[in-house]
Amino acid sequence: MPIRLIVGLGNPGPEYEQTRHNAGFWLVDNLANDIGARLQRETKYNALMAKGSVAGNEVYLLEPQTYMNRSGQSVGGLCRFFKITPDEVLVVHDELDLMPGTARLKKGGSSGGHNGLKDITAALGTQDYWRLRLGIGHPRTLSLAQQVADFVLHRPRREDQELIEQSIDKSLLVMPLIVEGKFDAATMKLHTA
């Protein structure tokens, strides 16, 4: 089944723009740019939204402007209105359990403590939607003394930023396969790149 909605997770506002928690926004911004779509404020969904074409398939791009822990309001509202099923949703988010430079595709599973995923799961009534996990590392594995909440709301070190950008580039290369519903091929290419 093809993907009809690509959601990037992050927090709105300039003070959060460069923080690790906004990695999902970074990918959707790049994708919108690549396909010539312009994200515009859509008050009905409290989000930035665009419509475009990836691999000949029409997709909606969405960046909730609700703050991370209320992301489900935007996603649930749009899915109900356009009759998009959870199988047709890809949520792009930062992932503490993966090192910077790593991107992984999976369907379903727990939220892993990610408040954006928790709220989307509640809004959709299921965990069975696709996730594109962009590694940001964990303060422990990066030998940092920061608490997790503080870590995700700060800008990455330059070397980590470069690795995160590389994982976004790799993810964008497989986006046509993901949107077409060729998840096995996309996973193989993404996980071995």
TrEMBL record:
Superkingdom assignment: Bacteria
Subcellular location(s) per record: Cytoplasm
Binding site for tRNA: 16, 67, 69, 115
Catalytic activity: an N-acyl-L-alpha-aminoacyl-tRNA + H2O = an N-acyl-L-amino acid + a tRNA + H(+)
Enzyme class: hydrolase
SUPFAM superfamilies linked to this entry: Peptidyl-tRNA hydrolase-like (SSF53178)
CDD domains cross-referenced by the UniProt entry: PTH
GO biological process: protein quality control for misfolded or incompletely synthesized proteins; rescue of stalled ribosome
Keywords (A to Z) from UniProt: Cytoplasm, Hydrolase, RNA-binding, tRNA-binding
GO molecular function, a single term: tRNA binding
Location of the active site: 21 (proton acceptor)
Entry EC no(s): 3.1.1.29
Record site feature (Discriminates between blocked and unblocked aminoacyl-tRNA), residues: 11
GO cellular component: cytoplasm
Record site feature (Stabilizes the basic form of H active site to accept a proton), residues: 94
Summary of the function given for this chain in its UniProt record: Catalyzes the release of premature peptidyl moieties from peptidyl-tRNA molecules trapped in stalled 50S ribosomal subunits, and thus maintains levels of free tRNAs and 50S ribosomes. Hydrolyzes ribosome-free peptidyl-tRNAs (with 1 or more amino acids incorporated), which drop off the ribosome during protein synthesis, or as a result of ribosome stalling.
Quaternary organization: Monomer.
Family membership: Belongs to the PTH family.
Protein name as it appears in the record: Peptidyl-tRNA hydrolase
Originating species: Rugamonas rivuli
Source organism phylogeny: Bacteria, Pseudomonadati, Pseudomonadota, Betaproteobacteria, Burkholderiales
